[in-house]
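quick one before i forget lol
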Amino acid sequence: EAAAFGEAVPGDVRKRRTRALKKLSADKNLDFRRRHLGREMDVFVEEMKRDGVPHLGGLTDNYLRVDLGPGTADTPLVPVRLTGLASDHLTGDVLRPASSRRGTPAVAAAEVSSS
């Protein structure tokens, strides 16, 4: 079917279009993350180590990558305020859950600073 379209798009045009689409995608991703700054969201936590130190990061329910800094979590889902914007992720502060907040247990990491 593609052969019916005739000649292929020239290489320089393909490269220009690819660059434009990549930039559009990056801009839209940045705008999407920016709109979530200041919101409180639950983050599914992934514990990892950076330079041998326990570190928290994870994903929101809409797949925003969030860096929570050093610490550990007692539960896989923690309430977070999204506080900062980085090149490919957000940063956030772990919140102390209210007793009425869907029964989320306390987090071992004391409020992690975004700085």
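fyi Residues 11 and 101 are 55 Å apart (CA to CA).
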